């Protein structure tokens, strides 16, 4: 049962799309105060687990930290970070006595203190008591999750090719760069369906343009790639460059589609292109205009996009820069109370909250400060694209995912988990985020395999990929100036072919489970506790996941490990895809085991009395030969295989 | 067998103190080149493990990363960091075919590429082919380690009180701050032997001074603390403030004891006090002078010190600042090729290598650039203190440890592992460093429990402490402006009393094992592989350690975990110190187990046919009642208890 409570005068987010009557009074859980902003306080029992928060730091169990929903361009995902790129305000308290879900529909800074200040106290607070609070009762955490998923609407469904493997790097500039990626993969028989185009494909980082010097015939290049069964995935950034004669800029000015300053002039912020205006995607007219701009690429054959920098990221604003320059000049002239060394301390960091305070949206004809609606920006940029696709290409699914998001955006696109690092701990961080993301509606998700920032190593990349085999979005991506991390930068390329190949062998299963989860408002990734809720050990496992209804995954995430300990909550079949293409199957008893897994192997566990389909390896999704399909596991079991054409949108 | 090879004209480091004849030719392992600097290259087998490198990032097995020996004030110990505070150039290749140790005695930047560039290739390189290379053959990695330890001399032995618990925080300023720490501990019966004095006790951050406004009778205050069985541990920084009339400055000038610039004038660098000179501790006369300065505090009753900022850390130099100001002015005036935003990028970070290039030491009467001897500075600062103590207080052990170090310094003091963070991953990082530190001679070691930077939580602090129970240096330390993390900042203080109390119950065992390791050139902490070298699983365990000859430790290091999986290489007795003071003992079979450990409990494992002494809890080391000693474990076994007065230096 779901109850909706309205406090004050909430801003409409369109997160929830099912009509729910408003309840009077207060929820039966916790204590609410609207005296000084809003607060919800609840005393947790020691055994209670708290799930949710989607893209957030720390564990599957969110207890023991303080999280702030505040979409942030944060490239250092260390354990102390309270905010990442998304704001996913849904939690479930899975208690011994009481279990309930909470969705706090509030579009800007919101704090979840989940046993940080006191270990037993859950406290949710925000500055304005203007919000909708949804309280969900259910039989258990899984039931509560499905009820929530039902009211926020069906998750985004990508085209089937988006379940292939993609190669990316910030730094590919010219057709030769992309052709090299494709030819190296094809030559070594490493499957590949997508190559990503980071910011360098554009003309001066201008959205919806292509560098015509590098790509004199872009459509021809897109076609050439398609002949090789490769989908190009260009990036689109939030900021529209201020440049006379540039069509997006001129149209935005003419239509009055840009975000404002308080005086009604257009807000300016520097990002990759230099000074830009942000499209006011919270305004339906501006959203429709911005979405329609994607047609310039769609019409050249592009069928896949990633939206970036849409927190929105800001390098500086002219006003913020002027303030910093004033401080710097005072320091240099000796008129400051700070010693000279302070230059380097004061100048470091980049607090853009005062920039956001100068930015405004036009909502229902009124100017609303960005700080009141901050977490809706990336959501509505992606919604802009998705709503336009429905009109421009109504008969086709388009791959679309975003860096910033809010619940509601899960209907329009997927997300990747932003700028992670080539750290072993980031394999595990990615794994831990996956079930929470699913709970919040985001099914098409994945992290930058190999790590975006810093330098990867061969073994790290292989272990990252062996997790990525299971994430709907499977992409190797890295930043400029880091060690190059395409598979062919390392010795023994056949090991990469083996690991990435497993993705394609499992694709019928992964696609089936994705589609069932999407169509049934269900989970693709689940904590073990959702399947084995009575198993006290399973309830606290933070490094294994259930995937669909049939399998458990337990990736290796430590360096120099020949394997890892794994907990089996029941008898299962240990499956290992070996480098020679054979599949090892061993029946293992309930309990602790050490699973040996070499760098070129991929392990999984099939639940008792379940089976999964596997096919022969293929070099791209459309080449998968379904006549090679066989079942492994408990082969007497039933399995419902889902198939469709992978392209037609689902009504 | 140890062979010494000399290349070029090495700088004497005094790391090795045993005479070893120089071998001709090249080592029998690997390939050496002295063509372009120095390089040693060796092809590793897949099963080979590489140990060593002391205070360094990543795992017990050092394979898969690139490490640079370059003592660095690095406050962000993320996985990508190649250099920390120490330079410990000893590794062991523990191979299926060959095992050997290598000590590269070279006092500045040295790179260990241990399977980073290619997974199978170990490559050690440095710029100048002027070094001593020690190659050690032995029956196994443990034997090789002990041979190495034997040639570098006996490890530092602290007074016994240094095995108590210490409370620290950057921010304690006044006697009331320290009194509060002590009274809160005594009131709650949380044992305490030491309170640390970070930089705020000094007069303007001037070494060997005390803020007399806060401490009008410092000796009286030291005595007052002693009556409460508390040892104060003041910090000493490397830089001596430039201030007329300040005795250390005046004496250093008069004696010509400071580091130089190339023109022979004194080198200036800003640290906490503002501009300072660095004592030229590589010059024996300056070292003797600087060491003798500690007497100003010894003579007031102080018997414990920590040496800090001795990489040496530099905030800026006047020359470096002038260069940065020039760039800034160009940027502000528009004369620069960079856009204004570049101010914030160019100014961030603090590359001090050009500062070091302007700094010189006087060695044997000749000016030697700091960059040639960089890793010896902290070592010799600590040596200065230790050599002075031997003269000033020959009948007493003084507690002494350092942030920066080089092998050789292990004879003079301990180290702490620098400015870690309140991250769960830093519990494990600390654990993984411990055996490598021991291999390199550093036995008196520990990390900042609870984490130095960022904000701790109650559960994190308790789990950190449950590892700290076993580290010779057991200190809760945190940075100013982080969440306060003395135990009394959190609910249920009795849980902290329980965990810290276990340290005191185990102290006879821990002290015995420390002394045996120190006197026998042996290890206090060992990888499991050193004890169970034939056990393939044990060989790759990275989160359990052997401590002394009797026990194995397996701390819990993940949040919200009710315990952890543990591998037993043989039957052992699982021991859990419970919060009520009782001790649970259970015999467990060889294999994988899940050990349940509550936040207020401390686990350990006693090896088959071994026993350990435990005593009743005491509130400080000197209050331990040895008549309460009993043995737990396999009580028929033998145990050699080591006891002494804990104060008299060992000849």
From TrEMBL, chains A, B:
InterPro entries (alphabetical): Gal_mutarotase_sf_dom (IPR011013), GH (IPR017853), Glyco_hydro_31_C (IPR048395), Glyco_hydro_31_N_dom (IPR025887), Glyco_hydro_31_TIM (IPR000322)
Domain Glycosyl hydrolase family 31 C-terminal residues, every copy: 525-610
Keyword annotations of the record: Glycosidase, Hydrolase
Glycoside hydrolase family 31 N-terminal domain boundaries: 39-113
Keyword check for Transmembrane helix: no
PANTHER family registered for this protein in UniProt: ALPHA-GLUCOSIDASE
Family to which the UniProt record says this protein belongs: Belongs to the glycosyl hydrolase 31 family.
Protein known as: Alpha-glucosidase
Organism in which the protein naturally occurs: Roseburia lenta
